[in-house]
Structure formats: C-alpha cells, structure tokens
Fold this sequence. Notes:
Shape: globular
Largest sheet: 12 strands, antiparallel
CATH class: Mainly Beta
Strand content: 35-45%
Mean pLDDT: 82
Number of helices: 4
Strand order of the largest sheet: 5-4-3-2-1-12-11-10-9-8-7-6
Number of domains: 1
CATH architecture: Beta Barrel
Distance between the termini: 44 Å
Order of helices and strands: HHHEEEEEEEEEEEEH
Oligomer: single chain
Low-confidence stretches: 1-27, 32-37
CATH superfamily: YmcC-like
Amino acid sequence: MNMKTLTLITLAVMLTTSCSGTYHAYYETLKLAFSESTDAQMSLVEVQQSPVDVISLKRGERPVAIMALAYLENAQHKWVSRDNAMLIIEKGRVVRTLGLKENLLYLANTKSDPLKSFPSVMPKKQWQSMADFTGDQYAYPLESTFTTEKSEVLQALSLNITTLLFVENVSYLAPANFIRVNNGWTNYYWYDKQSGELIKTIQTLSPLAEPLEITYLSRISRLNH
Length: 225
C-alpha cells in the first residue's frame, strides 16, 4: 500500500464520522486535491466554480501546483496538494508544513504576529519567534521587521488587482547545525487595497528552504463578483 492510498483511506475514515455537509465539502476537496491532471493552472471560471477554496503554490523552481482547502480549524487554514503535501496557514503566515523535503514543525509566539492586524496597522513593527525544523533543528530564534511598501498592481486570473505590499525582513539569530549561506531572508505579503484581503505571499521558512509563492485564487475570484 503506497502513501497516497494510505492517506486517502485515513481521510475517508475521518470523513465518515463527519456531518453530511462537512463530508460533501471534504469529498469535493479530495477530488480536486488528488486529481491526476497534470494541468496546474486554473481559469477564473474554474476557480469560481470550484466547490472548495483553492490556492496556487510555486515552490522554488518547481512547476506551479494547485492546493485545496481541506480543513479550517482554530483559525488555521490547512491546504492539501495532489502529492500529499500540506500547508498550515494562520492569518497569512505558514506556521507548519507536512510532506516537504524540509518541514517547519512549529512556530512560537504566533498570537503576537503583526500579520494578524495587517493591513490596518501600517507602521513598521517588529516580531520575535522561535521555530523548529526537521533535522533536529529546534528552538531557533527569529526576528522580523515589517515595512509597508508602495502600492503595486498584481496580475492573477487575467485580472489586474491594486494591492498594498508589506515586506518582512527576517533574521536568523542563532548558529545552526547545518551549513547555510546567509542569516536572513525577505518575505512578501500583498493585500487587496480595497478589501484588505491577503491575495498573495512569498515566504521562506528557513535558511535552506525554498521560497513558497502562494496565490489565493478563490479570494481573488470573489473580489470580482
């Protein structure tokens, strides 16, 4: 039994214990998330017709993938992909990953994350956290400084969207057990200027991690209803 089959069986067992409405939504999610289609792109109409929310994900130099919203629990959005990867996102920040080569296992102090107040809070703000990674990398301190950049027009789903860009400069404050070429990186967050919705982000989780470029396709489609 391969990992994909095991995952589907496990999720099926979980779904049978849910209410009928939840079961239907999760079933539709699975059909999308585990589709064998090689086309990782969706049109505006396809996104609007999707029974569940979807995002696109570009990880490093890999092709763009589509992920579907499987769960919304404790203010965390849990997105799944066809190859069994999962991103757990809390108010725009990736707080945990599953199924990647290198995973973020835990992120501390998320309650005071400035992203929870964006985009209403504009000034520069700092934030400190600690992160655990695979490979016995535990309790590594991170320090972030946020700035607000100029307005920027993004193109997604053949639409032009006026956004406000927030930039997060992250410093890695402790020596690591692995070799790395730098002690910091930059994350980006684009918010729709009219609604305040986060519609795109690029985040790097550790010095050795590949950037995750996430575009919130369903949110973008709803902006234009």
